[in-house]
């Protein structure tokens, strides 16, 4: 095993260990739904069994049904596959020093295991009689183009159809104009091409912020929360060293292109579109500021990825994990110290506070459609004439299931399942692939 691989495993092992320990101590959890439950456990209102069961119920399905399938399709680990699992590991580990040790060891083993295991799965798929990995990579194809749409969708959710439609038109015009005229020849004959997707996203984000800032207010909702929950805010600040360290590890792992914070930036990174991936991650960070800060103020529990700007640091400093760790830790520290000030700022601009929820909603909607289309494209490439039938059928049937997969996961899961099925059919002589591996 070469040195670079050892460094990667050490980083992801340390990330798994520290995140599990933070979850065990109730300092930080990744699942937004689990964060409000942690104080109930810390205050003795619920027991260890209850919080462990809650963590498992909230996170396990997302790890198996969403995080891992999306990761296999792109060969970069979606961070949900690690940090949702460390929530479970930390919650299930016992209280006290013994629990901290168990959480750290199991968390480290899990981090290393999923890294090696994911590659093993990819290698296994590649050795199958019908190699469907090239087709599976198509799952992320629509995501690369679709990610620039979400600001217009967010504007429509927050400000109505008319402003959303105007924004969509301007974003579309930018996309067309940059694709048509975005290549320039510099002195010396060097050509420089602007990213059409990146520029259109930038235009959409500028419009989104302009509309949001225009919503004025003089409320003090978050500041009132600050006065009520100051003790919980101080609890977060007291653990700034551990939180800064985990922020640094997230940035370091991202800089090594081991993890990504969301499917959009993950697919962009897989395509080598690093600037666009950083911009997408930055937009996601803006959307998570209100959610993470508000839940932190109320619960005294932070997120191991903070407001997710640590992923931006990792992307911008790719290939330099040491510097990424330092800068990522600094970003996390600044976030924690800004808790009070951000609460005041969000009160002055309630439109910005509300914008965060609409960004998250629009991103999820765009991803649901893009991953479903991508899954259908990949499935049709594997089995022409069957793929679209398969994915659309599973998507609709899933909605009637007692425990359905999240909509985001249906496309990738359906494509992986069909890839395995066509291999079985090939072995028994019932399927003839377009190209047999």
Describe the protein in words.
The strands form 2 sheets. This protein has a two-stranded parallel sheet. The two termini are 27 Å apart. It is mostly helical and 437 residues long. It has 2 domains: 3-130 and 218-348, no CATH class; 133-215 and 351-427, no CATH class. The protein has 21 helices and 4 strands. The longest helix has 33 residues, at 350-382. The chain has helices at residues 3-24, 38-42, 48-74, 80-92, 97-126, 133-136, 141-146, 150-159, 161-181, 196-213, 221-228, 230-238, 240-255, 263-270, 274-299, 309-316, 321-337, 339-348, 350-382, 387-398, 407-427; strands at 77-78, 183-185, 191-193, 259-260. 74% of the residues lie in helices and 2% in strands.
Number of helices: 21
Strand arrangement in the largest pleated sheet: 1-4
Proportion of beta-strand residues: under 5%
Strands, count: 4
Please write the string of helix (H) and strand (E) elements: HHHEHHHHHHEEHHHHEHHHHHHHH
- How many distinct domains? 2
N-to-C terminal Cα separation, in Å? 27 Å
Rounded mean pLDDT is: 86
From the spread of the alpha carbons, the general shape counts as globular
Q: Cα-atom Rg, whole angstroms?
A: 22 Å
Helical amount: over 70%
Largest sheet: 2 strands, parallel
Low-confidence stretches: none
Please state the structural category.
mainly alpha
Pfam family, one: YhfT
Protein name: Transport system permease protein
Keywords: Membrane, Transmembrane, Transmembrane helix
Transmembrane segments: 52-79, 100-120, 132-157, 164-181, 201-219, 240-261, 281-302, 309-334, 369-397, 409-431
């Amino acid at each position: 095993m070469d040195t670079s691989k050892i460094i990667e495993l050490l980083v992801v092992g340390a990330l798994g260990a520290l995140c599990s320990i933070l979850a065990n101590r109730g300092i930080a959890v990744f699942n937004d739904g689990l964060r409000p439950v942690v104080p109930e456990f810390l205050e003795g209102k619920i027991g260890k069994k209850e919080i462990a069961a809650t963590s498992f119920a909230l996170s396990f399905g997302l790890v198996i049904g969403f995080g891992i399938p999306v990761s296999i399709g792109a060969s970069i680990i979606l961070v949900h596959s690690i940090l949702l699992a460390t929530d479970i590991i930390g919650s299930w580990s016992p209280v006290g020093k013994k629990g901290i040790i168990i959480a750290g060891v199991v968390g480290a083993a899990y981090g290393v295991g999923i890294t090696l295991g994911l590659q093993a799965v990819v290698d296994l798929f590649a050795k199958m009689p019908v190699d469907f990995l090239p087709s599976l990579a198509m799952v992320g194809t629509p995501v690369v183009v679709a990610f620039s749409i979400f600001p217009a969708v967010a504007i429509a959710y927050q400000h109505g159809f008319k402003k959303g439609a105007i924004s969509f038109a301007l974003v579309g015009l930018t996309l067309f104009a940059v694709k048509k005229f975005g290549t320039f020849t510099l002195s010396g004959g060097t050509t420089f091409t602007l990213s059409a997707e990146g520029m259109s996203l930038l235009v959409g984000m500028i419009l989104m912020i302009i509309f949001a800032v225009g919503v004025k207010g003089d409320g003090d909702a978050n500041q009132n929360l600050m006065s009520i929950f100051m003790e919980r805010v101080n609890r977060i600040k007291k653990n700034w060293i551990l939180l800064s360290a985990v922020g640094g590890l997230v940035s370091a792992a991202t800089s090594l292109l081991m993890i990504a914070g969301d499917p959009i930036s993950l697919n962009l990174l897989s395509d080598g579109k690093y600037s666009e991936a950083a911009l997408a991650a930055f937009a996601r960070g803006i959307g998570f500021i209100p959610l993470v800060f508000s839940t932190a103020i109320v619960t005294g529990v932070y997120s191991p990825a903070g407001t997710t700007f640590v992923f931006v640091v990792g992307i911008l400093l790719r290939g330099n994990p040491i510097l990424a760790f330092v800068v990522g830790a600094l970003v996390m520290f600044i976030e924690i110290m800004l808790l009070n000030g951000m609460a005041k700022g969000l009160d002055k601009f309630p439109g910005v506070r509300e914008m965060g929820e609409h960004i998250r909603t629009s991103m999820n909607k765009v991803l649901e459609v893009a991953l479903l289309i991508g899954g259908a494209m990949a499935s049709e490439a594997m089995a022409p004439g069957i793929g679209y039938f398969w994915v659309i059928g599973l998507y609709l049937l899933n909605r009637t299931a007692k425990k359905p997969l999240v909509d985001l996961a249906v496309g990738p899961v359906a494509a992986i399942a069909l890839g395995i099925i066509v291999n079985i059919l090939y072995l028994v002589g019932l399927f003839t692939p377009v190209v047999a591996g």
